[in-house]
C-alpha cells in the first residue's frame, strides 16, 4: 500500500537510488534466516496488523501506541539516505518516516533517560529464524539519548513511496544513517528509555568485534576486514562487476551533522 | 569426466556473470563461491588416500593431483576476485589488509603455501625431487587445510554464523585423525618387534 509523504530535500542525498528489487531482496534480517535472500522468501509469515509499540522506562508518560497512532503522530517525510552495511556494501534508499525525536518528546523523558533501547518482536512462529540461537532473541539495539534525539534518526514506516515490505522491517523500524545498518532494529515492539548503556544483541554475540556505537568509520575495522571502501549495490553494468568500489566516508558522509556528538571521544576505543 | 565436473562451479559463475544472475552483490557471490569450492576440493584431496586404503581401489590415487590442482585453481580465483573487486588491483591495499587483519593473513598464507605444491605437481618434478622429498614437501597440504578452515571460520565469526565452518572443521578433523591413527599404528608395529628383540 501507498504511504503518502512529503520530500525532505534538505536531509536527502541526491545520489542515484538503489533499485527497489535490490532493496527488497538483499536483506540481513536474521529473524527470517541468515542468507540474504531468506527475508524476502520467509517474511510473508509476519503479521503486521494489529501492531503495538510499548514506550516505557524513564519517561513521564509511558504509553502503548497502536501502529495507526504512530503513523499519524508526525508528518510523514521521505528521506533519501545512504545505507552502509558492516559487511562492506551500501545502498541509497528513499525511506518514509519522521524523526524519532517526535515520539520521544511525546512520552516526556525524565532526567534519568540517558539511552534508548529498541526491541524487535519475539515470535518464533512468525519469525522462523528465531528458532536458531544464532543471536540472543529478541534483537535489541540502542542509542545514546542525543543520538536518538538527532533529527537524522528516522522512525521508519516505509520505503519507495509504500509501507515497509516485511523483509525490510515492517511495520516500523529504525534508520540511523551514520551508523552501520545493523543498528537499525526492525519490526519494533518495545522502546525503552534507560539510564545504563544497553548491551545490544551483537555486543553479546561477538563482543570483541561489535561495540555500542558502530559509527561508520573507514579507519576502524574491529570486524577483521577493511572498512575503507564499499560496494554500492545496483550500480554499473553486469551487476556492478566493472565499477570500482567507492571510498567509505567518516560517519557515512553525515559528519557535518553528527560529528559534534562525539567530540572528545576516542572512536578507536568506542567503536 | 570428473575434470569437467570440477570446472562446473566455475562455468556456472561465468554464465551467471554474463547473464547478470549473480544477485544484488556479484562481488560477494564470486568471492564466497570460489572460496568455498577451494575448501571443498582441498578436503576432497585429503579424502582420497583414506578412501583408497579403505576401499582398496587404487585408481583413486590418480584423482588426488587433479583435486589438489582444482583446490589451487579455485583459491587463486578467490584471491583474484578479492584483488580485483575489493581492492581494484591495488597490491598496496591488499598488503595493508594482510598486515592489519589476521583473517586476511590466514587466507593469504594458505594460498602462498599452495604455490610450491602446485609447482611441483608434475611427474617431472616428482622425479627431480625424489619421492621422499616430494612427499615431505606435500605434507604442507595439512597446514594449508587447517589454515583454510580457520580462515573460513574466522570470516563467518563476524556474522556469528559458524555452523558451516564447524561442519568443514569436523570433516577435516576426521581426515587428519585418520592420518594420526595410521602413524601411531605403524609406530607401534615397528616398535613392538624391536622391543621383543631387545628382551632376547
UniProtKB/TrEMBL annotation, chain B:
Cofactors (names): FMN; heme b
Main location as per UniProt: membrane
Keyword DNA damage: no
Keyword Cell membrane: yes
Family from the record: Belongs to the MsrQ family.
Organism: Thiomonas delicata
Membrane topology: Multi-pass membrane protein
Top-level taxonomy: Bacteria, Pseudomonadati, Pseudomonadota, Betaproteobacteria, Burkholderiales
InterPro entries, per the entry: Fe3_Rdtase_TM_dom, MsrQ-like
Assigned GO CC terms: plasma membrane
Its job: Part of the MsrPQ system that repairs oxidized periplasmic proteins containing methionine sulfoxide residues (Met-O), using respiratory chain electrons. Thus protects these proteins from oxidative-stress damage caused by reactive species of oxygen and chlorine generated by the host defense mechanisms. MsrPQ is essential for the maintenance of envelope integrity under bleach stress, rescuing a wide series of structurally unrelated periplasmic proteins from methionine oxidation.
Protein name in UniProt: Protein-methionine-sulfoxide reductase heme-binding subunit MsrQ
Annotated ranges, domain Ferric oxidoreductase: 34-149
Amino acid at each position: 500500500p501507498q504511504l503518502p509523504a512529503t520530500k525532505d530535500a534538505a536531509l536527502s542525498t541526491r545520489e542515484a537510488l538503489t533499485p527497489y528489487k535490490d532493496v527488497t531482496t538483499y536483506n540481513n534480517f536474521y529473524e527470517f534466516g541468515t542468507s540474504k535472500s531468506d527475508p524476502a522468501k520467509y517474511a510473508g509469515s509476519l503479521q503486521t496488523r494489529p501492531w503495538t509499540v510499548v514506550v516505557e522506562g524513564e519517561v513521564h508518560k509511558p504509553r502503548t501506541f497502536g501502529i495507526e497512532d504512530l503513523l499519524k503522530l508526525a508528518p510523514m517525510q521521505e528521506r533519501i539516505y545512504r545505507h552502509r552495511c558492516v559487511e562492506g556494501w551500501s545502498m541509497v534508499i528513499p525511506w518514509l518516516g519522521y524523526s524519532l525525536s517526535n515520539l520521544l518528546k511525546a512520552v516526556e523523558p525524565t532526567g534519568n533517560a540517558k539511552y534508548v533501547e529498541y526491541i524487535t518482536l519475539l515470535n518464533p512462529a512468525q519469525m522462523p529464524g528465531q528458532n536458531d540461537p544464532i543471536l540472543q532473541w529478541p534483537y535489541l539495539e540502542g542509542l545514546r539519548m542525543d543520538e536518538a534525539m538527532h533529527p537524522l534518526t528516522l522512525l521508519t514506516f516505509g520505503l519507495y513511496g509504500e509501507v515497509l515490505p516485511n523483509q525490510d522491517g515492517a511495520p516500523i523500524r529504525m534508520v540511523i544513517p551514520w551508523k552501520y545498518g545493523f543498528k537499525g532494529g526492525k519490526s519494533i515492539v518495545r522502546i525503552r528509555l534507560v539510564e545504563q548503556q544497553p548491551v545490544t544483541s551483537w555486543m553479546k554475540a561477538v563482543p570483541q568485534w561489535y561495540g555500542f556505537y558502530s559509527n561508520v568509520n573507514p579507519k576502524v575495522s574491529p570486524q577483521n576486514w577493511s572498512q575503507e571502501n564499499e560496494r554500492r549495490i545496483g550500480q554499473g553494468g553486469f551487476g556492478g562487476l566493472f565499477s570500482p568500489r567507492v571510498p567509505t566516508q567518516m560517519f557515512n558522509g553525515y559528519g557535518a551533522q553528527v560529528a559534534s556528538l562525539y567530540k572528545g571521544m576516542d572512536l578507536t576505543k568506542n567503536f | 569426466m570428473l575434470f569437467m565436473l570440477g570446472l562446473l562451479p566455475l562455468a556456472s559463475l561465468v554464465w551467471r556473470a554474463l547473464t547478470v544472475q549473480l544477485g544484488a552483490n556479484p562481488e560477494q557471490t564470486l568471492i564466497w563461491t570460489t572460496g568455498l569450492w577451494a575448501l571443498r576440493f582441498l578436503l576432497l584431496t585429503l579424502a582420497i588416500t583414506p578412501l583408497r586404503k579403505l576401499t582398496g581401489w587404487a585408481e583413486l590415487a590418480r584423482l588426488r593431483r587433479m583435486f589438489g590442482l582444482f583446490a589451487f585453481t579455485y583459491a587463486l580465483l578467490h584471491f583474484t576476485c578479492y584483488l580485483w573487486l575489493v581492492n581494484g588491483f591495488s597490491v598496496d591495499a591488499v598488503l595493508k589488509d594482510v598486515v592489519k587483519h589476521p583473517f586476511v593473513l590466514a587466507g593469504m598464507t594458505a594460498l602462498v603455501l599452495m604455490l610450491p605444491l602446485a609447482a611441483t605437481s608434475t611427474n617431472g618434478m616428482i622425479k627431480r625431487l625424489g619421492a621422499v622429498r616430494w612427499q615431505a614437501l606435500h605434507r604442507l597440504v595439512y597446514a594449508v587445510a587447517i589454515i583454510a578452515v580457520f580462515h573460513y571460520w574466522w570470516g563467518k565469526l563476524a556474522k556469528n554464523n559458524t555452523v558451516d565452518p564447524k561442519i568443514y572443521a569436523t570433516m577435516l578433523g576426521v581426515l587428519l585423525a585418520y592420518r594420526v591413527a595410521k602413524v601411531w599404528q605403524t609406530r607401534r608395529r615397528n616398535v613392538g618387534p624391536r622391543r621383543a628383540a631387545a628382551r632376547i
